Each structure stands twice: as structure tokens, then as C-alpha cells.
From TrEMBL:
PANTHER family: PTHR13416, TRANSMEMBRANE PROTEIN 43. GO terms for cellular component: endoplasmic reticulum membrane; nuclear inner membrane. Keywords: Endoplasmic reticulum, Membrane, Nucleus, Transmembrane, Transmembrane helix. Belongs to the TMEM43 family. The chain crosses the membrane at residues 64-82, 341-362, 382-401, 406-426. Its main location: membrane. It is a multi-pass membrane protein. This is Transmembrane protein 43. InterPro entries: TMEM43_fam. It comes from Physeter macrocephalus (Sperm whale).
Amino acid sequence: MSFKAVLSRYQENPPKCLRSTEEWGSKGLYWYRAPYSSMSNRKEHVRITTKSQPGFLERLSETSGGMFVGLMTFLLSFYLIFTNEGRTVKMATLLAEGLSLVVTPDSIHSVAPENEGRLVHIPGALRTSKLLSDPNYGVHLPAVKLRRHVEMYQWVETEESREYTEDGQVKTEKRYSYTDTEWRSEIVSSRNFDREIGHKNPSAMAVDSFTATAPFVQIGRFFLSAGLIDKVDNFKPLSLSKLEDPHVDIIRRGDYFYHSENPKYPEVGDLRVSFSYAGLSGDDPDLGPAHVVTVIARQRGDQLVPYSTKSGDTLLLLHHGDISAEEVFRREQRSNSMKTWGLRAAGWVAMFVGLNLMTRILYTLVDWFPIFRDLVNIGLKAFAFCVATSLTLLTVAAGWLFYRPLWALVISCLALVPVIVARTRVPAKKLE
């Protein structure tokens, strides 16, 4: 028999000694690692775990644990919804007070004594006292912030999983692939890979990312406080086309500096560095005009600092562009409204999930009867939907009770709609 025929037979029916099997406890858990596929250049393998189907008591025990998690989620949803309504009311009151008090100085190039301690509206171009730079790469520019972004070429593990039942056992097949290498700004720990051998990533980067911030930023004669400087976050990529390679070991390609022997064919561990900036200070022939912002803050001498309202909250706003005070507060109201509805939706989802987990035990009790199981599942979902909707509306109404009683009454009435609809359908079914 020829060598090719022997090899073909060996591949079709490999010896049992190559099938690594280990028994895990009394549940019959084991794993099987398939040979590497020659089609994937030995960068892919499969792991299969097997366990017996859980019995009734085991599933009932798991459901009981889920009920506790569901109860915690259910209670957390009330806290989330109620505190969100309080935050909404407080923010609306804060913005209404600010709009009634704000004033716009005649000029931003002089400090008006009559506006001392008042809430002022200051639009204008940003100006800094010195250039921000990264001498390691020869980058220098006038801006409020300069960010260096570092990425490393690393192995990335891809996992695909599927679960199926075979011979009365539940099997989970996981396919691990290492054919992808990507630029990542964070270290991908190869220690967590299913197979680290041959796919090891460095544990640290030789160059770190960082953000440099100008210590002094002005609009006209006014200096921005640290809180306002933090709000300048309109980062734009910095073109490196006019810069030279800063070092013989660093190569510039496009808008990246590469720590690599060949940027076209990088190796694991190679680095690439890019830059971005926010709040351009002064007009630049390459980058464009100075960045313009609008600030709402308290005037304290030539400083723009947080404004304390009657409710004890602070007001400190910065928006990009030259806009009126009315438009600033209009945008803040829209942002407050969007955040409110987002948190309301999150609270409703948490309540719905919590109710589902708490009532899951009823589904488990009839799991052995397919017809009843499907009916109970539909009924439990409908119950959770109606109850979550009603309780969410009642919680929202409670949050508005002392501020807008009429709105609270209307919302409370809406909370009864799901219950009324459910009750009116019961007699209809009985008549059928």
C-alpha cells in the first residue's frame, strides 16, 4: 500500500489515542479537541463540552435563583424610574431659573463690573496661552486639547458557539479562530485565549496614549474654569501629511506614525500612533479658523465659574458655535428630555425582565407538557408587559405628584388602561 493511501486512511479514521477525553464529576462532562484544520493554516480548533440534560429538580433550583435576581431587578427598576423623575424635575427647574437670569455683556473684550456674580452668556473664539506639543513625534499646534492615540497589532480570538441535544445530552460546540490580527488601542490578553501557544500578545505597549490640556483658555478677556475646559471635546483627527519621520525607527504613512519595519505588513507587537485635537486656538492656515463656543456661567472677575442656583444646584454650560442664550437652554431642555425618556425605557425593561424571572417558575412547572408550556409562556409574557407598563406609569406619576399634580393624575389614569383592557377581554372570551 502506498504512503498516500495509508495517510488517507489515517485521516479518515484517526486512532482513539488522539481523541483526548476527560470525565468531569458525576455529570459526564468531557471535552474533545478536534485536530487543527489544514485549510485554516493551523489557526482554528473546536472544543465540545457535554452534560446530561438537567432534571426537574435541578431546573426548579435554577429557577429559584432566577426569582431572586428577578426580585432585585424589579426593585431596582422602581428606584431608577423614581429618581429619574426627580432628576428631570430638578433639571427643568434649574434651566428655567437660568434662562430668567442670564444676561449678555456688550463686549467679551472687557470685564463689566455690573455683571459681577451674575449668570452671563459669553460667545467667542477660544484662545490659549501656548502651543500643545508632543516632541517625540514633532507635533505642535495651538489647541485646548491634544490627544495621542496608540494602537498595537495583536492577535484576536474569535469564538463561535452553538448548543444542540444529541443522545439525550446537551452539547455545546465552541469554535475558536485566530486568523484575525487587528489594531487595538487596548491590550488583548492572550492569557484568556483558549489556546495561547502561537498566539501570544505583548503584555504592555512601549508607547502610551495621553491627552494634553492647555492650562489657561480664554474667550476674549474671560478665562474658562476647569469644568468648562473639560467640556471642550470636539476632537478632530490631525493630518500628519506635512510632518517628517521623527526617528529612523518610526515611519510615517498617511496620518499614522508606525513603529514597524514594514507598515504594509505589520507584525504582532507593532505600534501605530495617530493624533487628534479639540478646540483650535487662533486661525491656522492648514487647520482653519479658531473654534467658537458659547458659555453660560457665573462671572467672577475675569473668571467664568459655576453658577449656584436657589435650589442649590450649579449651572455651567458650554455649546459649540455662536448661539443665543435662548438656543442654549432650548438644547439643554431637549437633552434633558431625551435622557429622561431613555431612563424611563431602561426602567420599564428592567421591570419587565424582573417580572419574567420572578414568574419563570410557573413555566418550569408545566415544562413537561408542550401545549400548556406554550400557553403559559404567552400568558406570562402578556402579564409581565401589562404589569410593567402600569407600574412604570404609576411610578412616573408619583415623581410628578408634588410638582405637577394634574399631570400626575393623567398619568395615573393611563396606568389603568392595560388593566381595563385585560379585564374587558375576559367576558368576551367567556361569551365565546
